[in-house]
């Protein structure tokens, strides 16, 4: 693994607190506070935009409805260096007794960044029930109480200085993340979690209720982890020839929002069934430690390399 690859992946282990903050402009209009761009990228992180879309849509929902899907189409890249915030406007497309739909359009100045459609559903009992098990049994990573306490201290010690000022960041703990650049396979398992104290601090800082923050963070993490699976079938030197990877669209299916607990170990099984013509389709299925399928992510990306790569894996 090259230093650039390692730095790029480790960059996602830190989430700036302010990057999750949305300021209220009006009852259905919200603005970003801090836009974040990872290393080796020229655009605002797509996972941040997806997370903002989830939170914006939720703020325009009344009652006991839960999000069940989010479909995002990206139209222009966000520019983090631009002092103009990204503004999210929520549209009430449908408000029903059991199902509601909200549209979210995002602009940075006059540039349209994305359009998203979020579906919400009232909890209903009965009906068909089945759940695909994890692709294979994997034991969740374990840490002693002392180790986790030591990791929690990173909330205040870690800082991001890309903007020239010190900002609090939340640390995400990953297992097996670097295998993206060291193995060749059809699929890959990634474990992730945040600490309990980190989650509480994030909720207080962002004013996002804890129950909803789990979903917002899942949306944030679903982007780069799933997108990178497009490289799994190829030799590792593909990274040396990578010119561009950018999301075209991103879909999330929240099967059971109450089962998503990012302060507990969660397993994301990622794969890429197809890539050609400078596009790649990627998928991710997220399970909790009990083996319950919690959410599914599907993403289509533009992928450009300086030379062609072909795999029969």
Q: What are the SSEs and their pairings?
A:
Blueprint: H1 3-11, E1 14-16, E2 22-26, E3 29-32, H2 46-58, E4 65-74, E5 86-95, E6 99-108, E7 111-122, H3 145-152, H4 154-157, E8 159-160, E9 167-171, E10 173-175, E11 187-193, H5 196-206, H6 210-227, E12 242-254, E13 266-276, E14 279-288, E15 293-305
Antiparallel strand pairs: 1-9, 2-3, 3-5, 4-7, 4-12, 5-6, 6-7, 8-9, 10-11, 11-13, 12-15, 13-14, 14-15
InterPro entries: Acyl-CoA_hotdog, Acyl_CoA_thio, HotDog_dom_sf, TesB_ACOT8-like_N, TesB_C
Keywords: Hydrolase
Protein name: Thioesterase-like superfamily/Acyl-CoA thioesterase, putative
CATH topology: Porin
Tell me the strand order in the biggest sheet: 2-3-5-6-7-4-12-15-14-13-11-10
CATH class: Mainly Beta
- The CATH architecture term is Beta Barrel
Please tell me the total number of domains. Answer: 1
* Outline type: globular
Distance between the termini: 21 Å
Helix content: 10-25%
Question: Whole-number average pLDDT?
Answer: 86
Secondary-structure element pattern, one letter each: HEEEHEEEEHHEEEEHHEEEE
User: Given the helix and strand composition, which structural class is it?
Assistant: alpha+beta
Query: Would you identify the CATH H-level superfamily?
Result: Acyl-CoA thioesterase, double hotdog domain
